[in-house]
Amino acid sequence: MADVKAPSKKIITSENVYLYYGKKEALHGISMDFNRNEITALIGPSGCGKSTYLRCLNRMNDLIPGVTINGSIRLDKEDIYAPKVDVVKLRKRVGMVFQQPNPFPFSVYDNVAYGLRLAGIKNKQVLDQRVETSLKQAAVWDEVKDNLYKSALEFSGGQQQRICVARVLAVEPDVVLLDEPTSALDPISSAQIEETLLAIKDKYTVIIVTHNMQQASRFSDKTAFLLNGNLVEFAKTSKMFMHPDKQETSDYLNGKFG
Asked: Mean pLDDT across the chain, nearest whole number?
């Protein structure tokens, strides 16, 4: 009987990623790999390229006029920028949660079921189960279960953000991207989002942009430090925060950058 190969530990591989806004080079040859079931934090000062790079991973930069991307980004060894790639399917596999909570202006249930219905799922029992499971994974089920048909906009900012996380999880992506998801939230809501990310790590790969170095140190497995569009250092979080290899990293961790 032939051996069945286990899936590669790496789920996303990026090599020499350059990004241009018109003629301006914003990312300067970034190479990073992301492993399954790990949380990676992208840190660095404002304008360093963290969010720009994150948006490369599910082609959100395609929506910005004048952007050119060179290099290679592969999801399970398949080039996500190949001409025949279905971008809608890509973004189903690589979901994204944004800085500001952005629930749709309808019920909690319809927010979470949105992507499922878009994928053609109409069975009420399946929708009910996936909505409940996703809200539980996002640690917001107990707070909304009695108000599933209430507008998502009527909940607090922290609850809205977790509803947005549930909306992404409902379509069962492989990777969850988060662009500073707690920057607009109070400390309690931020802690709830962190707990959610730790709870889902066994099922998903998580890549998060954060300005909060304490946050990165608390729950990420690996950390990447970007500066002026360059990847300065990429290492296990415990090592980077205790013994950074680069002086620029040490300076940033010690508050010498903005």
From this structure: 93
Q: State yes or no: pLDDT of 1 exceeds 70.
A: no
**pLDDT of amino acid 28:** 98
User: 10-253 belongs to which homologous superfamily?
Assistant: P-loop containing nucleotide triphosphate hydrolases (3.40.50.300)
Enumerate the domain spans of the chain.
10-253
Please name which of 232, 179, 202 lies closest in space to residue 56, comparing C-alpha atoms: 179
In angstroms, the Cα distances linking 78 to 9, 83, 99, 201 are: 15, 12, 28, 23
pTM score, whole prediction: 0.93
Neighbouring C-alpha atoms within 13 Å toward the C-beta of 22: 1
Backbone dihedral angles phi then psi of residue 236, each to the nearest 5 degrees: -60, 140
